[in-house]
Amino acid sequence: MILIIGGAYQGKLDYARAAFGLTDDDIFTCRGDRIDFSRRCIYALEEFTAHCPESVAYFQAHRAQWQNSVLICRDIFCGVVPMDAQARAWRQNTGLLCQYLSGEASQVIRIFCGLEQRLK
Question: pLDDT, tens digit, for every residue of 22-40?
Answer without folding.
Answer: 999 999 999 999 999 999 9
